[in-house]
Design brief:
Length: about 120
């Protein structure tokens, strides 16, 4: 993490990652309009790292064959969780989703997923 403070790094403009880099005194931050543009900047050597949300980075690299030489490092910082937004009148759907999430969390597979993404300590 600190290795990159003096090197050019990229992120998405006006994102929480951008704010994190500013708050932690990264000196050379290049802003990109989108993830693919940022990953292309990484691939071309404009930046030495591109910092953004792990699931999105992994998805984009997996989906774009020109980016598959890139890898996402297992370093985590400023961990955030995702949420689902539902209309207030969808209580049955909310109950069904909540019940299914609880069922999944009780399985051994859930522990495997947590371990895979380094989330066991959360």
């Amino acid at each position: 993490f600190n290795e990159f403070k003096e090197r050019p790094v990229g992120t998405i403009a006006n994102s929480s990652a951008s704010q994190f880099l500013k708050d932690h005194f990264f000196k050379d931050v290049k802003s990109y309009d989108g993830v693919v543009a940022g990953l292309q900047g990484l691939k071309s050597g404009e930046v030495t790292a591109f910092m953004y949300d792990e699931p999105i980075l992994k998805y984009r690299i997996q989906e774009d064959s020109t980016l598959q030489t890139l890898q996402v490092l297992p370093a985590k910082f400023d961990v955030q969780f995702y949420a689902f937004g539902l209309s207030k009148n969808r209580t049955e759907l909310e109950r069904a989703i909540s019940q299914r999430i609880l069922e999944i969390m009780e399985t051994q597979e859930w522990q495997v997923v947590l371990n895979e993404y380094g989330l066991t300590e959360l």
